[in-house]
Each structure stands twice: as C-alpha cells, then as structure tokens.
Design brief:
Blueprint (H helix, E strand, L loop, with lengths): L6 E6 L9 H4 L5 E5 L7 H15 L6 E3 L3 H9 L3 E7 L9 H10 L1 E4 L23 H13 L10 E2 L7 H8 L6 E2 L7
Parallel strand pairs: 1-2, 2-4, 3-4, 4-5, 6-7
C-alpha cells in the first residue's frame, strides 16, 4: 500500500512563480496545486508562464517537479522533491477552444475551475442572478476533460463553485460521474 500524500489544494501567486520557500521545501507537504494564470491572462500569456516554470524546474536547486499523475507525486516524494499540480482558477486561457484545452493538458494542466463568480463561455458563475447552467461549449469542454482524465481521481480533481449555487444541469453532469469530485468554496461563503 502506498503512503498517504499531503496536498495543498490552492497555492496562488500574485506574480510569476519563482519557487517556494525553504519552509515549504522542508515541510511534510508532498504536492500543491499551483494556480496559474492571472485572471485576465489568455492563451499566449498562460503558455509562456508554464514554459517559464518548466525552464525554472530544469535547475535542481528548486527541488520541484510538475506532476501529471499521482505516480509523479510519489516519484517527487521518493526523489525528495515537491510536486506542482498545474491548475487554472478560471478557463479564460483556453479561449473558447478545445484545441487549446488539449494543449494545456499536454503541458501538464490537470485542474481547471470551469466557473467562478461571473458567467463565462463555459457556464454560470455563483454570483450571477440567473442560473444558466453550462453553455453548449461548456458541455463540450466537460466531455473533453472527462475523456482526457482532467478531473477524475486519483488526480486530477474537477473544482467548481459553491455547491449551493450550482445550476441543476451542472449537478446532473457531476452526479453522473463515477469518480470523486472536489468542491471549492469562494471566500465568504460557508
């Protein structure tokens, strides 16, 4: 039986990621979700950020590696490193393109929060007054994420808004899953 893993579900940087502190490197944490990109970053800025992270991690002094699977997290742990799980808190970077979603998957992104406070091209956010559910494009994104394994356990996890605000069509999609789902609660909600 594999040893338990300790994973921080939300590491967010206000600027470009430049590594972690010595405290993190020597902590019991095995991995963390690294939230990229910035709120308004599109495809080009996001791919550039991911490229910078890969270039930085070529230097062993950082003690980090990108995890694309649970096996990668265990490998990092065995090698005395911390694993980064690349995550998006909003889907802006895919820019309404399934092809760009695929590119991010190949680059190592394993978590994409499909909605947040405001509506987007995928679905209704939790602060909208009208519950619009998933858009047609959002349903295609969900199908592709399922096909790629972007949100099933073990790793990665699909993150969405507060369950009390989830539209019925989204709930129906989620309840049809045979794997675990994680819920993220926006600040200020129970």
């Amino acid at each position: 039986m594999k040893e338990d893993l300790i994973i921080d579900g939300c590491a967010f940087t206000e600027t470009e990621f430049t590594g972690v502190t010595e405290d993190v490197l020597h902590s019991k944490m095995d991995a963390f979700f690294l939230t990229i990109p910035g709120e308004g970053d599109g495809y080009v800025a996001s791919t550039r950020s991911i490229g910078k992270i890969y270039n930085m991690l070529d230097n062993p002094k950082y003690g980090l590696m990108i995890a694309k699977s649970v096996a990668d997290i265990y490998k990092a742990k065995e090698d005395g490193k911390k694993a980064l799980i690349l995550a998006f808190q909003n889907p802006n970077s895919i820019e309404n393109s399934l092809e760009q979603l695929r590119v991010f998957y190949e680059l190592g992104v394993r978590v994409i929060q499909m909605t947040y406070n405001d509506a987007n091209f995928i679905g209704t956010g939790c602060c909208e007054s009208q519950d619009g559910g998933l858009t047609d494009f959002g349903k295609r994104v969900l199908k592709m994420m399922n096909r790629l394994g972007m949100w099933r356990l073990p790793m990665p996890v699909f993150i969405t808004s507060h369950p009390a605000y989830e539209p019925k069509p989204m709930r129906k999609c989620l309840l049809s899953r045979k794997t675990a789902v994680s819920w993220e609660f926006p600040p200020g909600l129970p």
